[in-house]
Amino acid sequence: MADTLFKSYEAIGNREDLTDVISMISPTDTPMLSRFGKTKAKNTLHEWQCDALDSASTAGVVEGSDVETVALTPTERLGNYTQISRRMFRVSETQEAIDHAGRASEFNYQASKALKMLANDMEKTLHDGTGNSGASGTARELKGVRAAITTNVITAGSSALTVTKLNELLRTIWAQGGKPNAIYVNGSQKEAIGSFSTPITRNVNAMDKKYTNVVNVYDSDYGPLEIILDRYATTTELLALQEDQFKVAFLRPVTKKALPDNGGGPKGVVEAEYTLQYGNEKASGKITGLAA
What is the DSSP secondary structure assignment for residue 83, as one 8-state letter? Predict the structure, then answer.
């Protein structure tokens, strides 16, 4: 007798096996954007002032001498232009009406993705922005951390990061009066710091006492510095920042807006207008030209 077992290969109407979980591993961490303070910009050119004390003196005053007038040094006025960062998204009416796996609304899902991409754009801009006042047809661009730091700069000449180089940078910053608290690096320089024999603090899991080879803090002669792993840090540079000098100034905060539907389907935009207030750049420093 012939085998009449009905198998799945011949079946029609079996539902597809598509889970409601959408896997996404694209980076979304934004250390500078998250850690820097926030403030309000009131114009497209956001300005602030810096000052410095005169050098300390051991000179005494002759007894009975009259008080002499001295020339006072005015404050230094600094500024940074606001930049508009934007991400657009649009979904057809048909796609929005379809029953989706993993999300109830395609439009809202794309809006959520756009917000994450906007945050990544802002993080990269805080690192790499070169500054531009803008013009008709030319976008304004803020000056990022790398371009803002000009005083305390150590050039490595394509050599590897060492304790000596890092201490030289911290000593230079300290001499200017800076007190950096964080080091921003990409993966390669994080590994280089991890290879230092001293002075570093590694992770110890308090629950199971397991030792892990992860460097979180660099204990320097000039104070401890937290090691921040940032994907948008340049592979050949190290930034030592006094973070309380840095603020993200928003002229317009991050907003999500629905745009007019011209008939094809809903569309929207997420955008922000912001700049970097970098305070006194002498409080921070960088090493350039490191071996990647």
Answer: E
